[in-house]
């Protein structure tokens, strides 16, 4: 399991990143700490609403933008989806299998690109600063029903 910000108290995170410690930021950070997979801003909003009825969507959006700009969360844009997902930053990085039908994200253990990055740097004289890998397909629940995913429509 990757380690990262989950192990720290919220007040320590806010202090380290020099952002104000508010009730609503604590709610969002707690949701991200407990999440087992990346969440959309809407999913975070609905979970937050259960914890603080006064919170609104624009507040969630602003908090996520602050968290992203400070490096507390990672924002991922998913193919064939209008919504980005957010996850708490970890030491290292994660890669995902993403279902084209239900949008489920399954983390992949390890990184298959480490040696390939070194090869690319050596053969191109390019300094690689990072990468992002997503593999798209169908999860076990959806692979029998691929209609309506936007990928196979119009194909014979």
Which short descriptors sum up this protein?
156 residues; alpha+beta; Arc Repressor Mutant, subunit A; Dna Ligase, domain 1; 3-stranded antiparallel beta sheet; 35% helix; globular; disordered C terminus
Instruction: Report the strand count.
Output: 6
User: Which structural class should the secondary elements be placed in?
Assistant: alpha+beta
CATH topology of the largest domain: Arc Repressor Mutant, subunit A
Question: What is the distance, rounded to the nearest whole angstrom, between the alpha carbons of the first and last residues?
Answer: 42 Å
The order of strands across the largest sheet is 1-3-2
Strand content: 15-25%
Top-tier CATH class of the largest domain: Mainly Alpha
Architecture of the largest domain, according to CATH? Orthogonal Bundle
The pLDDT mean sits at: 83
What is the domain tally?
2
Instruction: Tell me the Rg in angstroms.
Output: 18 Å
Q: What coarse outline follows from CA principal-axis ratios? A: globular
Number of DSSP helical runs: 5
Measured as a percent range, the helix fraction is: 25-40%
Low-confidence stretches: 152-156
Biggest sheet record:
3 strands, antiparallel
Topology as a string of helices (H) and strands (E): HHEHHEEEEHE
State the CATH superfamily name of the largest domain.
Answer: Winged helix-like DNA-binding domain superfamily/Winged helix DNA-binding domain
Cofactor: Zn(2+); Mn(2+); Fe(2+)
GO molecular function: DNA-binding transcription factor activity; transcription cis-regulatory region binding; zinc ion binding
Binding site for Fe cation: 93, 131
Binding site for Zn(2+): 99, 102, 139, 142
